[in-house]
Amino acid sequence: MADTLKPHTAKDVEEAVQWARSRGAALELVGRGGKRAIGRPAQTDLTLDLSGLSGVVLYEPEELVLSAQAGTPLDEIEALLAAKGQHLAFEPIDYGRLLGGAPLSGTIGGVLAANLCGPRRIAAGAARDHFLGFEGVSGRGESFKSGGRVVKNVTGYDVSKLVAGSWGTLAVLTTVTIKTLPRPQTQATVVVSGLDDATAVRAMAAAMATSCDVSGAAHLPAAVAARSGLGTATGRSLTLLRLEGVAPSVDHRKATLLAAMKAFGAVELRDEEASRGLWGEIRDVTPFTAADVSGRPVWRIVTAPSRGAELVGMVAGAAEAEVLYDWAGGLIWVMLAPSDDAGAALIRRAVNVCGGQATLIRAPAATRAAVDVFSPQEPGLASLTKRVKQGFDPNGVLNPGRMWAGV
Amino acid sequence: MVVAMPEPDRAVLLRRDRIVKALSAIVPGEGVIASEAAMRPYETDGLTAYRALPMVVVLPSTTEQVSRILAYCHGEGIKVVPRGAGTSLSGGALPLTDGVLLGMAKFNRIREIDYDNRVVVAEPGVTNLAVTQAVEQRGFYYAPDPSSQIACTIGGNVAENSGGVHCLKYGMTTNNVLGCEIVLMTGEVVRLGGKHVDAGGYDLLGIINGSEGLLGVVTEVTVRILRRPEMARAALIGFVSSEDAGECVGRIIGAGIIPGGMEMMDKPAIHAVEEFVHAGYPLDVEALLIVELDGPQAEVDHLVARVEAIAQDCRAVSCRVSATEQERLLFWAGRKAAFPAVGRISPDYFCMDGTIPRAKLPLVLSRMRELSERYRLRVANVFHAGDGNLHPLILYDANKGDELERAEAFGADILRLCVEVGGVLTGEHGVGVEKRDLMPAMFTEADLAQQQRLKCAFDDKGLLNPGKVFPTLHRCAELGRIHVHAGKVAFPDIPRF
């Protein structure tokens, strides 16, 4: 078991990284550890436990801004926002159950480092789009900051975006500033049932092309719908379209969208409470978390929405594939039967044809060490990526190899 | 010119004829402009106080040409300044006398409109407005709408991460771009993202947006388009103090309402605009808000009523809600003409751009009035109130004594004030040359060194648009050595906190 360093201040972090760098040691960055099983297995000497950097520094609801130390638990922040009628509009997925752990175990730093998002990605963006600024420590052991605490700024390179989704390979976040937004007053979901995948993707595209402001568009083929707790025993697929906003607006759009979707299949409505439940399940990919399937690999594939069904067509029928579509077809969660490569060859082939990228989210450590977890990059992009890493962390102190070997 | 640019490379200038010939071989015909008269239109951009004639202008029309030009310049150690429509307000496209001015105007085609995925693939020289025009017959539009949208290009929007009056609700350029093709200074072509969201790997797309032409030359952009809201209505609300107006903005957002647009103007701006456009703005108020709500009619009516009630609570002295689309557009015509309106009452003006925490607005306005008196120059303010983005317009006459110098100093003081109250140097116009030397007011040496190391990953010789954004140019090798903190290690053994 690797030794653990537990800093309590940004200065401690700086010293820890400087120390590690001087010793040629590599650090594994951990908040509450909820996402440790994502990425290539750690090739590190020590753990840098950031949960000691905790606490909200500033929250000004009317300015739409919150600053917190990076190790602040996400649930603490979400509760604070909820009390003021706000939320994180990017709806970050809780990976806890999907990865076989406990739910509610993320930190705000982890949410940003992994650039998490949820079904509302198509309407409100991902963590990156709400990340205003940060203070952190580079792999050189130098404290630096980027961005600011106002909701709009273009001063210097937008390093916040770069750090979002870098999985702790560029810098240790110590304090982060994010944009908060009003929580929609109410929501409802239009459900179309019985559509095959290709028709569902067309229906979702049609819904997105209306002026109904659809803030979630997901499709569960019959087998996956049956796995979910979505209250259907009909054996039919479910296509879900979420509407959020003030009540008079949601009422109006419900009617418009129901009328537009009738052309595709049988439609029904789910009210606010049912709708919240549905989208919680979609966000956290709950159908793939049951005990009987917890040993099966799960892929997260992002592609152009119109290619979603085609991509699934190339994967379906092999390795007992089960899929869940989100983002109007642009995000596909694929669960396969266990195998040596977790289905990597199959998935990569499909993504090469249809475009996009795929990440192996759930698989045993040995598999994640053996196959590419993140999409392999073109040589030009791969070398640019390495140069960026070099600029932040020339000695490979921070999470080396978590995304790709040598990064 | 007051601002200092990198020392021209005499060796490069001595080789000018050879360089022009080599570029002409890459871009034949009229694609290379070398005569002084023909280069004159390129000597400045939207920040007209600064001018410089480039060494040569090249107008490529294919990615391959861009790649060959950059590879050639990289090999020869020649600086390159990319340019879209030249509407930058921070001098981002200011030429270098020993540099190639790379004009992207010939990249003016929309390559694909994909309604299934709701994206448009455009060449970088396509104007912002042309993207919307290409899709509006199907009821779609491209959300970011900088005031210069009729002229500014989508490639320039990417470089500056442009905003506009609707970005509080719909985001800036960076939130609306899904993919880019870029050419690095070495000539290497790299594709980032595509029609899918989440490009994967490091978010280099997020870095390219707002990189002010320092990292790569954009040769293709994929943007998302949105379905136009069913309708929009605007409320024109007058206040006797900017404090009341500021409180109203805060309470609208506090009530959970994110308007499609929320703009504020101060008295000098209101008067300049009203004389010019006759939009029916009240002249007896200190601050005027335009609050626009968009969506289905049921939503708009509901929210307009709530905004009216909030305005009343905040002591509004006048409130008009647009009854017709024509009236709504008239409300906006005033705001959108603010810059030319000020141009009518003053021979020259600087349009500043800073962002502040909104609650600090009354303080900033009162400090600005003091500065106005001290510098003996008038100032008018327009303000993207929802997101705290301030545009003070400093009025001066370049032909009068030291007014230009005073205007520059006044502007710098305003931006320092923005940083002092917790804001940033620029909200949407970029740093360019205008705010370059103010960067240390906001960033430490370590902050800037880390940004420049990112530059080195893209452009190791520092040839792409040098002299912009960063006050001090460091060689990449030197940045590798910089240790901001003395390299002494605090812990002799494993640190345990």
Question: Short summary of the structure?
Answer:
The complex is a heterodimer of chains A (407) and B (497). Chain A has 407 residues and is an alpha+beta fold. Chain A has 13 helices and 18 strands.
Please provide a written account of the structure.
- The complex is a heterodimer of chains A (407) and B (497).
- Chain A has 407 residues and is α+β, with helices and mostly antiparallel strands.
- Helices cover 30% and strands 24% of the residues of chain A.
- Chain A folds into three domains: 1-183 and 377-407, 2-Layer Sandwich (Uridine Diphospho-n-acetylenolpyruvylglucosamine Reductase, domain 3), CATH 3.30.465.10; 194-283; 288-370, Alpha-Beta Plaits (2-Layer Sandwich), CATH 3.30.70.240.
- Chain A has helices at 10-23, 74-83, 108-113, 121-124, 159-163, 197-208, 222-227, 247-261, 272-283, 308-315, 344-354, 365-370, 379-392; strands spanning 3-5, 27-30, 46-49, 56-60, 65-69, 86-87, 131-138, 143-147, 171-179, 181-182, 186-193, 214-220, 238-245, 266-270, 298-302, 322-326, 331-335, 357-362.
- In chain A, the strands form five sheets. In chain A, strands 4-5-9-7-8 form a five-stranded antiparallel beta sheet. Chain A has a four-stranded antiparallel beta sheet with strand order 12-13-11-14, with helices on both faces. In chain A, strands 16-17-15-18 form a four-stranded antiparallel beta sheet, with helices on one face.
- Chain B is α+β, with helices and mostly antiparallel strands and 497 residues long.
- In chain B, strands 12, 13, 14, 15, 16, 17, 18 and 19 form an eight-stranded antiparallel beta sheet that branches. A five-stranded antiparallel beta sheet of chain B has the order 5-6-10-8-9. A four-stranded mixed beta sheet of chain B has the order 1-2-4-3, covered by helices on one side.
- In chain B, a hairpin with a 4-residue loop joins strand 18 (379-384) and strand 19.
- The N and C termini of chain B lie far apart (53 Å).
- Residues 486-492 of chain B have low confidence and may be disordered.
- Chains A and B meet through helix 1, strand 8, helix 5, strand 10 and helix 8 of A and strand 9, helix 8, helix 9, helix 11 and helix 17 of B.
